[in-house]
């Protein structure tokens, strides 16, 4: 029975996929761990000007590569994948990192730009008016930054917005850039800077726990006083 429960718990754990970019010497300058889903829009040939929405999941078979010394000192992580098993066209995510000039610390990084390249050339799936489409980021990038050695950015859920209502959602996100790591994973000693939503949750939890403990202490104290008062009354009655 215990073995069955253990296997069930292990089966319910969703492990995040890992994507990396390596230097020429074999070090890892970017490591990203996440489960990625997305939504894009496109025009079908028979639908006129109305946009069609398409949801997808980046599969475990996705491939990653990059450039640790790109233009102007930036670092690039590329993720290539097919959104469906039978799809023939390769899709492409590009994340461009740079040193966080606002911090000025060694090993600081921030996400500077990002792009999504969709391949709609498979007519059996999309029948799109555009076989290839580039989605650009919409607005400035908030968060996705950290500073200090062995420090990564972490967020339970984070969404990057694109033009034409497209988006990428990263769940269980951990990312570090501007580093030279020997292995493509986050060690036990890694420090994390949380996204805003997660930091709010981490602040609320101690308050809630403290309030619950305070309530419990008050309830115990009231029960004690009531019991003591009853004991006194019983003592008077027996006399």
From TrEMBL:
PROSITE patterns: LAMP_3 (PS51407). Its main location: other. It is found in: Cell projection, Dendrite; Cell projection, Growth cone membrane; Cytoplasmic vesicle, Secretory vesicle, Synaptic vesicle membrane; Early endosome membrane. The chain crosses the membrane at residues 204-226. GO terms for biological process: establishment of protein localization to organelle. Keywords: Cell projection, Cytoplasmic vesicle, Endosome, Glycoprotein, Membrane, Signal, Synapse, Transmembrane, Transmembrane helix. The lineage of its organism: Eukaryota, Metazoa, Ecdysozoa, Nematoda, Chromadorea. It holds the Pfam family Lamp2-like_luminal. Residues 1-16 form the signal peptide. InterPro entries: Lamp2-like_luminal, Lamp2-like_TM, Lysosome-assoc_membr_glycop. Belongs to the LAMP family. CDD domains: TM_EGFR-like. This is Lysosome-associated membrane glycoprotein 5. It comes from the Eukaryota. The keyword Kinase does not apply.
